[in-house]
Design a protein that fits this description.
There is one protein chain. With 100 residues, the chain is an all-alpha fold. It is built from seven helices and no strands. The termini are far apart.
Length: 100
């Protein structure tokens, strides 16, 4: 039984070596494994994932809350954005745009 198992393992090892060698008949310009791979961006161009979202999520994609609008207004104005990092958003917004 052990000799049969050893013979099987040796046979499989030789078959693997024979099959995995590079074929000398292949021309140098033939496609290799590296040229067959495609980038993530190319793959995603034709495979689109369907978004799962509820009506509630879609609503908030289009309409922003007043506080989020104020944050974006402050972020888009560089002095307010810088000051909000130093003293906080509410004080920076009050300084540049008045009471919120």
């Amino acid at each position: 039984m052990r000799s049969l198992l050893a013979l099987l393992i040796v046979t499989l090892a030789l078959a693997t070596l024979c099959c995995c060698e590079k074929d000398p008949k292949d021309p140098p310009g033939s496609p290799s494994a590296a040229s067959i791979k495609i980038t993530k961006e190319v793959a995603n161009a034709f495979v689109k994932r369907q978004k799962r979202s509820t009506l509630y999520e879609r609503y908030f994609e289009y309409y922003k809350s007043p506080m989020e609008q104020m944050h974006e207004r402050c972020e888009n104005y560089p002095p307010c954005d810088y000051l909000s990092d130093q003293i906080g958003f509410s004080m920076a917004y009050n300084h540049f745009f008045g009471r919120y």
